[in-house]
Every structure is written in C-alpha cells, then in structure tokens.
C-alpha cells in the first residue's frame, strides 16, 4: 500500500501538532518530484481521520485508516492534475467529466500503488475542480471529525492560460475555509505558487532520501534485483518516484531509462572524432517522439556531462550513472576536463532554445557540433 517511507522527522513534527490540536488548516508539502509529497499528504490525511491515532501517526488498522489506505475514505478528497476532458459543453458537464476522470484515476492508483501517470500527458487543475472542492467542503464530514482535501501538483494552479481563475477561486476558499476541513497542497517548488496562496500555507519541506533507503524501498516493493535497485536509487537522486521510473517495465527499458541511454549516445557522438557519428545521432529516430522528450534527454545529457566531469576529476564514487563508469573513463580521454562546464552551459542553452519551438533535430545537430568543438 502507499505507506510513507523515510521523512521520520517531518512525520514526528506533524503527529505532535495533530495530537496537540495545533495543526494549521492549510499546509504545503514541497520537495522535488518523486520525493513522496503526495504519499506524505495521504499519510497526514490518514492521521486526521484515524479513529485511534498513536503518538507516531495513524494506526493503519482502524476502519478509517483502512478506507483511507484503500483510497475509499468518504472524507479524504484527493485531487490532482488531469487531462482536460473532451466534449464537455458547459461548466456542469465539465465538472462531472472531471469528477469521473478523477474517480477513474483513483481506481488506477488503487489497482497499482506504484502507478505513475504517463509523463507526456498535458494536464491541469481547473476552475471546475476548485468549485467541486468548494461544494464538497460545504457539506459535513461523513465519518470522521473533519474532511481533508489533498491537491497534488498545486503549481498548476498558477496563473497561466485559463487557470488564473482556478488559483483565485482556490485562494478564496483558503481565505474563508469551511469549518472542519484541512487542505494539504503539494508542489515541487513553492515559489511557483501565487504568493497570496503561498502565504496562507504552512510549508513542510521533504528532503531527498539517502540512496540506501530508496534502494531498500525498491527491493521491498518490486522484484528488482539488488544491482538494479541500487542503480535506480542512484539515478533517482533522493526520490523514490524518480528511482522507480528507471526500473524496467515488463522486461523492457522504461521511458526514463530510454531517455538516459539516448542521452549517453548523444554524448558518445559528441566525443566521436568522426563527424559522421554526430550527423547520424542528430538524424536518428528520436527515442520517444512525444512532447517533452527532447528537453528531458537534454537534462539527461547534462547529467552525463557531470558524470564525465566526476570521472575526469578522479571522483568515480560521485558518478550517478555508475553502470557506465568504464565507458565514461574511455570518453574522458577524449574530452578536455576544463571545458566540461562550458559544455554544460551549451546544453542548457539548447534546452532553453528548444522551448521556443526550434526544430529539435537542427538544435541537436548544432549542439553536438558545438560540444565536439568545445570538448576536444
Ligand atoms: Zn487508524
């Protein structure tokens, strides 16, 4: 089940605040993606509806806890970004369609506790969902002493196309919260929230987990062998969610692993003395044609360059993709170590340039040539 892992200090503080009746009505759990923000939000929600809470947290065995663990508790409402439903012609229909989509998504999470939404899906938090939250908040709790609303990835409530209304509507709810409700928002970066919204939330920071804890989690929850679990934990960089994304799916490399390997091929092409290798890499079929994959592969390339710098500096133990340390040693012989920081800047530039609709193949061809010139 979605048991929380690590973050003992945060849990202890929250449990103490709940026991003393001092927990603020609105909180913001933040930390890098995959670090366990929504899992922690659900842990706190469980604690708030638990019939026999202990000093350490929810009992996990009472009726309230069992329903919460099964995502069926009538007083815990978990909202998260969803794709915009098609064909909803008026606000009521849109609200209904979003609720239907939310229940379907909850069912998927119930069936697979390690479920992750498809990475390239365009999703949002909509005014219609905020209105649903307001409507639910106006009714009394069904079972517990209070209702708990979890809003995942709340940065999508920031003013952008058509969602400023959603952010402002949500702000109104927090300004005059319904009685007996707790709001738990999650975000990767609190700065991305409207300042007026942020100022009403108690920030709770979730730090990166140590590799060995992430690896232990993976070994306990999946059939990954110890080497795979250890590598995934390293690649996850303190985040269970990210680490899980690197595990094979049905024996095939995952999307994230495909991106990582594609980025390594780019680095090898950039360091190949033969210009034809760079041409071939830039014109090869892209690993995942979907939106966002190009920027993600550039992020992965930046990580490989950092690993290359570590190897060049004799710091093998700092290498993150350490399944490739030998290859990196081989590549490091072709690269000027003092030029690696400049190479990393070139990659960031290409990523920013790619955001303004440049042709990815041209951007990549140009980048590989520039990297080659800079590093050799
Ligand atoms: Zn309980």
Comma- or semicolon-separated keywords:
single chain; 376 residues; alpha/beta; Rossmann fold; Zinc Finger, Delta Prime, domain 3; 3 domains; 5-stranded parallel sheet; 5 strands; globular; binds zinc ion
Written overview of the protein:
- It is a single chain.
- This protein is an alpha/beta fold and 376 residues long.
- It folds into three domains: 8-205, Rossmann fold (3-Layer(aba) Sandwich), CATH 3.40.50; 210-247; 250-375, Zinc Finger, Delta Prime, domain 3 (Up-down Bundle), CATH 1.20.272.
- The chain contains 16 helices and five strands.
- The protein has a five-stranded parallel beta sheet with strand order 2-3-4-1-5, with helices on both faces.
- Helix 2 (37-49) runs antiparallel to helix 3 and helix 11 crosses helix 13 (293-312).
- The radius of gyration is 23 Å and the shape is globular.
- 39% of the residues are buried.
- Residues 50-52, 58-59, 62, 64-65 line the site of zinc ion (ZN).
| Straight-line N-to-C gap | 51 Å
Rg: 23 Å
How many beta-strand elements? 5
- The tally of domains stands at 3
Shape: globular
Q: Name every ligand kind in the structure.
A: zinc ion
Contiguous low-pLDDT stretches (5 residues minimum) are none
Reported CATH architecture of the largest domain: 3-Layer(aba) Sandwich
CATH topology of the largest domain: Rossmann fold
Oligomeric state, counting identical vs distinct chains: single chain
Computed structural class: alpha/beta
Find the CATH superfamily of the largest domain. P-loop containing nucleotide triphosphate hydrolases
Question: How are the strands ordered across the major sheet?
Answer: 2-3-4-1-5
The overall pLDDT average reads: 89
* Residue share in β-strands: 5-15%
Order of helices and strands: HEHHEHHEHEHEHHHHHHHHH
CATH class of the largest domain: Alpha Beta
Number of helices: 16
Helix proportion range: 40-55%
């Amino acid at each position: 089940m979605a048991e929380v892992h690590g973050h003992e200090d945060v849990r202890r503080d929250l449990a103490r605040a709940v026991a003393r009746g001092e927990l603020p009505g609105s909180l913001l759990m933040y930390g890098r993606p995959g670090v366990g923000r929504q899992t922690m939000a659900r842990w706190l929600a469980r604690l708030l509806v638990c019939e026999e809470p202990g000093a350490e947290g929810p009992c996990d065995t009472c009726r309230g806890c069992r329903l919460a663990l099964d995502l069926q508790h009538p007083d815990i409402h978990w909202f998260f970004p969803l794709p915009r439903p098609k064909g909803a012609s008026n606000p009521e229909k849109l609200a209904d369609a979003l609720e239907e989509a939310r229940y379907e998504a909850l069912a998927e999470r119930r069936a697979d506790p390690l479920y992750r939404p498809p990475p390239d899906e365009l999703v949002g938090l909509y005014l219609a969902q905020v209105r649903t939250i307001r409507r639910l908040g106006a009714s009394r709790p069904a079972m517990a002493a209070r209702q708990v609303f979890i809003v995942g990835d709340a940065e999508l409530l920031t003013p952008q196309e058509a969602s400023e209304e959603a952010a402002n509507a949500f702000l109104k709810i927090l300004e005059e919260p319904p009685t007996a409700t707790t709001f738990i928002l999650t975000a990767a970066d609190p700065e991305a929230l409207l300042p007026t919204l942020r100022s009403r939330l108690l920030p709770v920071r979730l730090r990166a987990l140590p590799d060995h804890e992430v690896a232990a989690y993976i070994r306990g929850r999946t059939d990954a062998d110890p080497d795979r679990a250890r590598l995934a934990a390293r690649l996850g960089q303190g985040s269970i969610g990210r680490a899980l994304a690197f595990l094979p799916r049905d024996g095939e490399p995952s999307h994230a692993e495909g991106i990582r390997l594609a980025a390594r091929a780019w680095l090898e092409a950039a360091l190949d003395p033969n210009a034809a290798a760079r041409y071939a890499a830039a014109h090869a079929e892209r690993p995942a044609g979907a939106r966002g994959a190009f920027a993600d592969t550039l992020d992965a390339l930046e990580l490989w360059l950092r690993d290359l710098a570590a190897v060049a500096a004799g710091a093998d133990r700092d290498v993150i993709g350490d399944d490739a340390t030998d290859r990196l040693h081989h590549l490091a012989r072709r690269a000027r170590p003092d030029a690696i920081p400049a190479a990393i800047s070139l990659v960031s530039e290409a990523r920013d340039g790619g955001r303004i609709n440049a042709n990815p193949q041209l951007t990549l061809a140009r980048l590989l040539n520039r990297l080659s010139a800079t590093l050799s």
